[in-house]
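User: I need a structural model of DNA-binding PadR family transcriptional regulator from Tepidiforma thermophila for a docking pre-check later this week. Nothing fancy, just the predicted structure tokens so I can convert them on my end. Input:
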Amino acid sequence: MPPAPGKFCWRIGPTPAKLAEMSLRFAILGLLTAGELSGYEIARRFEQSVGYFWHARAQQIYPELARLESEGLVAGRAVPQVGKPDKRVYTITARGLAHLADWVLTPSPLTLTKDEFLVKVWSYGLVEPQRAIEALATHRRQQEERLAAYRAIEAAFEGADPAAVPTAFLGPYLTLRAGIQFIEAFLAWADEAERILRARAASRPAP
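Assistant: Understood. Predicted structure tokens for DNA-binding PadR family transcriptional regulator:
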């Protein structure tokens, strides 16, 4: 029989925390396909690429690298530095590449979105329409700034000609296009939301 309300519920598949842990390790493996990198370099590249759609702190990356090395998915070596402690650099192993390729083709569960902005939009009916329009405009500007950053990255891909994108950069290019189209869809929705809010403001009786 089903569990009583408020008691507990069954979860099928990995928990969100486990999914996050799994995705982080594969993001690291993906970054290492570009070549040998130190933990610091991985963290920097993560922030400038994968970090746009999968957030992780540097403190999470180093323990995961250690686990990947212990499992034989990456190989690490110490590099001497003058006047500094040795740094450790990592490369993906053949086993790591096979592990990554298998994961890439594994179906992903639908993402459960947590978006504070949409939670606020949910309650726009509680505030004056003009105030809601102003709040919407603030979020729109943030999205437009990110879109401009994405467009600048896109321009580096051989003039954004998909046929000219090297195979090694095909995945990053496709995720970039997903980000661009996601924001474009948001901006189209924001236009619609603003029209609805302005119409609602115009129909309100004067105080």
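Before docking, keep this in mind: Strands lie at 37-38, 74-81, 84-92.
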